[in-house]
Write a structure and sequence with these properties.
Elements lengths: L2 H24 L4 H10 L2 H28 L6 H17 L3 H14 L3 H29 L1 H21 L1 H24 L1 H19 L3 H20 L13 H16 L8 H13 L4 H33 L8
Helix pairs in contact: 1-12, 2-13, 3-4, 3-10, 4-5, 4-13, 5-6, 6-7, 6-9, 6-11, 8-9, 10-11, 11-12, 12-13
């Protein structure tokens, strides 16, 4: 099986998985009532949410600019913002492709080496992962009455298994270390891979070497602050969810992010399953209302990514004729 066939197969597998989860999530939902909720929802709140999403992505672009400057290259905010919008459009179709796409867009538009920007994107994702863990901690602290027993039921068996299988755990850790070491050695011996690896490492180091660390932190706060607000505002679209607040929004954002980052096109199925399970299982929202909320919220965001991604592509490559800032 060649590489292209393998990727296609995995794409189909995860697409089918997403479709299966979508069916499972809506199997008990009255579709006629769902359509009624879609028509009667207060979309002014959704529009405000999408505006916050746009601002959050702009902060993401500005944060990326800081990393790129630390690498010794210049760029325009309009270029990085356009690249980010195109990347999110790509992720709706092919999961995780967006990270590669936005680096390629910036290479073409501003002549910044692909390997450098790829490293900066990886370091950016690591920072976001740390923030996500921080949100998860806050969720556990503020929602312990709801989540405590569930977390305990997961963690106790895990710790018991690790305690009873110390040798197995040690072997697993050493195996991972050996694989990483082997990959690094191979990259260093191959000239092309070595160049890519150095650029990758430089991109990750940019977070440490950058001079504008406080600006990077401020932009990170902007990214996630507006993420929380954009998750909270749609609660007011439906009367059944209008009593939920910021704590519930942080909880939904933290857990639902897992569904979005899963290798399923656009998070279809995974987001709906997690959102419906959380809202109905923990907050007492009817499954019908939870399904309507998930469908409207996810659908609106997908439309946003589609429209803004296409507009960004047209503007960057057909209207904006400015030369790259890097020669």
């Amino acid at each position: 099986m060649n590489k292209k066939t393998s990727k296609t197969l995995w794409y189909v597998v995860f697409l089918v998985l997403g479709a299966a989860l979508l069916w499972f999530s809506f199997r008990n939902i009255d579709l006629s009532q769902l359509w009624t909720d879609i028509k009667e929802a207060k979309y002014s709140w959704m529009l405000l949410s999408l505006a916050c999403l746009a601002i959050s992505l702009y902060f993401r672009a500005l944060r990326w600019n800081v990393q790129i400057e630390a690498l010794g290259y210049d760029t325009r905010a309009s270029s990085t913002y356009g690249a980010v919008l195109i990347a999110y459009l790509a992720n709706c179709i092919f999961p995780r492709l967006g990270e590669v796409v936005r680096c390629s867009v910036l290479k073409r538009k501003e002549n910044i080496p692909f390997d450098k920007t790829l490293g900066s994107v990886v370091s950016e994702r690591i920072i976001d992962l740390i923030v996500l863990f921080g949100l998860a901690f806050l969720v556990i602290v503020f929602q312990w009455k709801l989540l405590g027993s569930l977390i305990t039921s997961w963690m106790v068996p895990l710790f018991n298994t690790l305690k009873d299988n110390v040798l197995l755990g040690t072997v697993a850790i050493l195996s991972v270390v050996a694989i990483v070491y082997f990959i690094i050695r191979v990259c260093k011996k191959n000239k092309k891979l070595s160049s890519l690896w150095r650029g990758f490492v430089d991109g990750i180091k940019s977070v440490v070497t950058m001079k504008k660390k406080w600006r990077f932190i401020l932009y990170t706060m902007g990214v996630w602050g507006f993420y929380v607000i954009m998750t909270w505002l749609p609660f007011y679209m439906l009367s059944e969810t209008s009593h939920l607040g910021l704590v519930e929004a942080v909880t939904l954002l933290g857990i639902a992010t897992i569904g979005v980052v899963a290798p399923v096109p656009g998070g279809i199925g995974t987001y709906h399953f997690i959102a419906i399970t959380l809202l109905s299982g923990f907050y007492g929202i009817s499954e019908q209302a939870a399904g309507s909320f998930a469908a409207i919220n996810h659908g609106s965001q997908m439309i946003f990514y589609l429209i803004t991604g296409i507009i960004a592509y047209v503007v960057m490559f057909f209207i904006d004729k400015r030369k790259p800032v890097n020669k």
